[in-house]
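Annex B. Sample input.
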Amino acid sequence: MKLLLTADTVGGVWTYAMELCNALQTRGVRIALATMGRKLSAEQHRQVNRLRNVQLFESSYRLCWMPDPWDDVELAGAWLLSLADDFRPDVVHLNDLAHGGLDWQAPLLLVGHSCVLSWWEAVKKQPAPENEWARYRSVVQKSVQRATMVAAPSSAMLTVLLRHYGPAQSSGVIYNGRNFPAPMSLSAKTSQTEEVIFAAGRIWDAAKNIKILSHVAGQLPWPVYVAGEQKDATGDRTEVAGVHLLGFLEPDQLTGWLGRSAIFVAPALYEPFGLSILEAARAGCALVLGDIPSLREIWGEAARYFDSGSPESLRRVLAGLIDNPRLLRQMAEQAGRRALLYTNRRMAAEYHRCYRLLVETPGPTKGLTGA
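Annex B, continued. Sample output.
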């Protein structure tokens, strides 16, 4: 099977794409990987070069949520159609929301990992300004409604995607998967764990809500460390007082921090899946998460939740774990078990089944749900 797959290089979609490409190797899927957003880093090039089933086509076209993107979006569309003409894929799998409305000659799977309108509602608590985002809405509606199938990494994300841009011809949920870091045994975790609270995410992204940690860090007996980029695409820098900022961490550095941390905090206001949370659970961290539908859906009883808008709620939940070592250990064990549901092998099996349905069933297909 031949697959044209798009990915952006500036967020979690890149990690997702690498996991998917890697796991599809054993299923004989040849992949033309078209990247947008910005040029690949040296580390990203190394990741691609390790994948024997992937041919890279690199660009730096702006994504549709970036400032003044529309000339680039149009150019990227022509580029993608040209790649499809040359590669002749059996299935087109788009991980950007701008190009589903093009005249594709193969079945199209459109995956919505996030969107501006739902981000705005969750973070700003109001609709996105129509004068600023009307074109975005129109373009994404066309993509969603023309795709052969629309998927998302959680039911919560699929629901808002279809509410804003639907209806879709067919839709379903495929949960993300990750095989990093290697699952940590209880004995190994116990020997490495320190009294450390850890968080990771784009610090500049208000959806990650990292700033709330500055309101509670000074009230806790354990230090709070935060990994992630502080500068956004325009170069503006976000500061967070009271915590230890680590900057962007390479995978081996991240593994070390996850291994030594007892608690991982994700205070998200908006998080359609959350690969960093999955990584922390695999590393044996107890999870403290913002109480939003997508995270409840994915983690169930394997996490402790707090009101993402209340520093006091966060402080109470963290203090409750710090003061109760037995509960802390139990929550870490539950998170580790739950994480085993979300592997790249399972994710790839669901996507491969979806690709086969698209190829073998002309027109709209029945929806599917990742197990």
